[in-house]
Design a protein that fits this description.
With about 160 residues, this protein is mostly helical. About 75% of the residues lie in helices and about 0% in strands. It contains 6 helices and no strands. Helix 5 (about 105-115) runs antiparallel to helix 6 (about 120-145). The mean pLDDT is about 85.
């Protein structure tokens, strides 16, 4: 609903869809980064760096960022299917990417308009959209399994 409201205010177009997706997802990433940073805040290794005289930029660059980048990468890979679906839905409604730029949503809409003549355009673009979202979902799951130490199997 937020996406539809923002597109109604901004208008359709490629740049507006990118801006809309950024506005919708940045708070989610910020919340995760903040939570991960707060869990690291009082870690013994950061206290040791402070005692050794490391500045805030060094602590951030060498200790905090490497520890929070894993969950953010996993979250990004898990959000790719959602972003694809949002863009396809907006383009299907005519509020997203405009032709001549290709979009699965506009392909679905074009095929839907001629559904009584042939179902193949809808089927082909729908299957491609489904496979892309499923593939990115499985990729995100694999990233999560590879990065999360709690999920690693013990030999």
């Amino acid at each position: 609903i937020l996406a539809l409201a923002l597109v109604a205010v901004l208008g359709p177009g490629f740049g507006n869809v990118i801006l809309l997706i950024a506005v919708v997802f940045v708070p989610h990433f910020g919340r995760i980064a903040r939570a991960q940073t707060l869990t690291l805040k009082n870690s013994p290794f950061l206290e040791a760096e402070i005692v050794l005289g490391a500045g805030p930029w060094r602590r951030m660059r060498h200790h905090v960022l490497p520890n929070i980048i894993g969950p953010i990468v996993v979250l990004a890979s898990m959000d790719i299917p959602v972003v694809i679906t949002i863009e396809a839905g907006l383009s299907f409604l005519g509020l997203g990417v405009r032709p001549p730029i290709a979009s699965w949503g506009s392909m679905l809409n074009d095929g839907y308009n001629y559904l009584d003549q042939s179902y193949w355009p809808v089927l082909a673009s729908g299957v491609a959209l489904t496979l892309a979202t499923l593939g990115f979902t499985l990729l995100g799951e694999a990233f999560r399994d590879a990065i999360d130490p709690k999920l690693r199997r013990q030999p």
